[in-house]
Write a sequence for this structure.
């Protein structure tokens, strides 16, 4: 199959996915000092919180962090950053489980192919399934991916 067929498959899957995936965010934390935790505390936070969040959850977490760290709008201690990079796996909000936008790396695409080949497909293609497949098609287009997409598109489309 050629590039046009790949794009047609990706477009169809994105259309079926609708708004199943939402923008994702992560948090950058500034000035994580011992004073916030007390002397000799074993808590260590890095400059980036490794969790992914949907918008409602990131707003709640940042609000709590600002109160805990003593930041305010004029001098924040935590910033929200957009999650728009490649990933080795699907991305979901670490609090509520909402599917988030992501782009697969080569490693991630290989892992998804292995997953789709090992796991029995859902009898119905739901919007989140279509989004997973669209990201796989965007990252890789070969006989394995084409077979997975053909099997998926032969099933009924559902709404969750």
């Amino acid at each position: 199959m050629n590039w046009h067929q790949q794009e047609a498959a990706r477009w169809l899957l994105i259309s079926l996915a609708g708004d199943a995936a939402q923008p994702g965010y992560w948090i950058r934390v500034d000035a994580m000092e011992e004073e916030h935790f007390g002397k000799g505390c074993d808590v260590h936070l890095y400059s980036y919180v490794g969790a992914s969040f949907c918008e409602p959850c990131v707003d709640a977490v940042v609000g709590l962090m600002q109160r805990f760290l003593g930041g305010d709008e004029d001098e924040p201690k935590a910033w929200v950053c957009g999650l728009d990079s490649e990933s080795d796996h699907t991305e979901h909000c670490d609090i509520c489980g909402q599917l988030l936008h992501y782009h697969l790396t080569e490693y991630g695409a290989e892992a998804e192919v292995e997953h789709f080949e090992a796991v029995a497909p859902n009898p119905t293609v739901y919007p989140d399934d279509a989004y997973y497949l669209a990201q796989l098609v965007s990252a890789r287009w070969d006989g394995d991916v084409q077979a997975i997409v053909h099997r998926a598109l032969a099933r009924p489309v559902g709404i969750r």
